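Deliverable D2.4 — example input (structure tokens):
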């Protein structure tokens, strides 16, 4: 499937002045479009049976297989925020997020006196999938609750909280802020909002020294009365600073290269039911809306006529793909 008519001209642009004309690589099956949108998938419980907030292990595996087959590769949320996507030409990024630190996301089993990761928990599934499909990458963000009631307090195995968070970070997974105990930030005054966000930062930092929570997923998708309270602040001597704020729904997210990209209002897709299959089908039907990498992290490839939609960044090279 091709996103555009056969490509004829590729102008390499340093903001406004074309400096070169390059042919597209012959191997490209999908035309690059780094202004296309990106799915940030949102999972909650990983358990049987499927439900409104639950994805079964089998269906999580199926989602990953579908994404892989359709040319998607995982990226860290941080990579999305910074726009440092470095993918083979023709592939598309997807961001995986897991909210609420429930046991099915990360569970240890004890076998013969040894701890092993449950192959049916999200971490076990993601690691097994990445081993079988190394190109998919091992990337996900876990928006954890350090002071929630069980079973949502840091994955619900009290003796393993420290081990789990340190393991996740050592494997390159990201931890995100989801408040101390899933506080509805719309309901509280400034001091409580800040105490929730700084408190979560403090607790995680105690477990993983020096770790900064770079993103906040809003419990229930509710913003506090003032956006700035959620972005940065300080409480009880602890500072927090979020580079991104994620919502609970809203569909696919604008490209980080787009002027429409707003890191403090990032929409997500709830990965339940047939949502992943439906969205993959949608991008098949609306190929021009899908983010497709050009294989060159130094350039931003955009279809002709859309260069004005690109958000300027210092030193960024713009590659404009001109169709017939
Ligand atoms: Zn939540």
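Example output (designed residues):
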């Amino acid at each position: 499937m091709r996103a555009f008519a056969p490509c004829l001209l590729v102008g390499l642009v340093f903001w406004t002045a074309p400096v070169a004309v390059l042919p597209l690589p012959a191997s490209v099956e999908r035309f690059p479009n780094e202004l296309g949108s990106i799915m940030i998938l949102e999972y909650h419980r990983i358990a049987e049976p499927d439900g409104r907030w639950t994805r079964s292990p089998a269906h999580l595996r199926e989602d990953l297989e579908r994404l892989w087959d359709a040319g998607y590769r995982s990226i860290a949320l941080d990579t999305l925020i910074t726009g440092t996507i470095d993918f083979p030409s023709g592939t598309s990024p997807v961001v995986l997020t897991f909210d609420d630190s429930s046991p099915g996301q990360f569970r240890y089993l004890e076998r013969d006196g040894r701890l092993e990761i449950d192959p049916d928990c999200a971490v076990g599934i993601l690691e097994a999938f990445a081993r079988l499909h190394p190109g998919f990458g091992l990337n996900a963000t876990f928006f954890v609750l350090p002071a929630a009631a069980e079973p949502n307090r840091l994955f619900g195995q009290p003796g393993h909280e420290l081990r789990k968070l340190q393991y996740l970070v050592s494997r390159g997974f990201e931890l995100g802020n989801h408040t101390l105990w899933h506080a509805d930030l719309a309901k509280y005054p400034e001091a409580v909002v800040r105490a929730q966000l700084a408190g979560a930062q403090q607790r995680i930092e105690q477990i993983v020294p020096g770790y900064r929570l770079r993103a906040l997923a809003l419990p229930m998708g509710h913003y506090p009365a003032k956006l700035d309270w959620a972005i940065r602040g300080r409480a009880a001597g602890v500072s927090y600073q979020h580079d991104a704020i994620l919502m609970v729904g809203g569909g696919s997210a604008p490209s980080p290269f787009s002027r429409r990209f707003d890191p403090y209002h990032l929409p997500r897709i709830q990965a339940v039911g047939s949502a992943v299959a439906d969205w993959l089908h949608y991008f098949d039907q609306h190929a021009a809306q899908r983010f497709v990498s050009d294989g060159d992290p130094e350039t931003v490839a955009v279809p002709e006529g859309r260069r004005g939609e690109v958000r300027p960044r210092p030193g960024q090279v713009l590659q404009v793909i001109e169709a017939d």
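The first helix runs from residue 57 to 69.
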